Amino acid sequence: MTSKILAVDTATENCSVALKVGNDIIARCEIAPREHTTKILPMVDSVLSEAGLTLSQLDALAFGRGPGSFTGVRIGIGIAQGLAFGADLPMVGVSTLAAMAQQAYRRKGAQHVLSTIDARMNEIYVGGYQRLDNGDWTNVVEEAVLPPEMFKPDCGEGEWYVAGTGWQAYPELTSQLQLSVTESGVLYPESEDMLILAHHAFERGEAVDAENASPVYLRDTVAWKKLPGRE
After folding, report:
1. Which of 9, 108, 137, 224 has the most CB within a 10 Å radius?
2. Whether pLDDT at 1 is above 60
3. Which InterPro entries is this protein grouped with (predicted)?
4. How many Cα atoms within 13 Å fall on the side-chain side of residue 45?
């Protein structure tokens, strides 16, 4: 892997930045709810300084495209677009759910992963992934947002690892799957793992200009109780 790619992610409670140059990865990561806007740029400066590089020397900028918190996803893509515009870099969006699958592989050697994120409002973001021989991942359970009781994927056989906060928020999930699962210990996505996915996407020609980078919320509308007299 020779591409020089910077990845940033603020889609969940975790705030992270990572830079890959050749076989070297420099990463910063901190659980910092509501502090992403003050943490992320110093992290970017730190990894670039350690590598002795400037933004303009990179090949692409990757970002956590979601799903996750609406505010977190917007912060991440906004900061990533600002950096990419300034340095004239193409952008690559990476699924936060898929990034957790890669993290489960990095930590546990997982080849099949079911990722969930607590989406609040009694819903979860879900996705299932299988690792390919080239180190990339294929989506075998479509990414979606749904009530926990409706998550009953047809995963087939094999050893499946689980990752993300959804399993913690809804412990009953594992009992309804009808397959044996193993805990990965992964709760949040990290930019370090987005680099792998971003590299494959970049090699496939999936990078876009900064103005065309877009988030993936999965939940496009937020339901709330209307006040009397309001439409």
Report:
1. 9
2. no
3. ATPase_NBD, Gcp-like_dom, T6A_TsaB
4. 5
